[in-house]
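Action item from last week, closing it out:
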Amino acid sequence: MNLDYKREILIAALDARIKEVTEYQVNIDNFRLAIAKIGNDDELQPFKQHLQSLLTSSILEQRKAQIMLDVIRSQVE
């Protein structure tokens, strides 16, 4: 196996995972702020529930991405 090539792939994957985790965090922050802004507005409760579902999903997906980021980082170091 070509170790230089493997390292290049891992470095590219590392950059991509860092961006992925960061993008999830931006979404998580936005969902939390929007949920708080909606508050108890009766007309927006369905939208608030949708955002809460997206928030839950994003948190889980970020955890998965963080695991992969940690694994890749351990191989690069």
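Closing note: Residues 3-76 form one domain.
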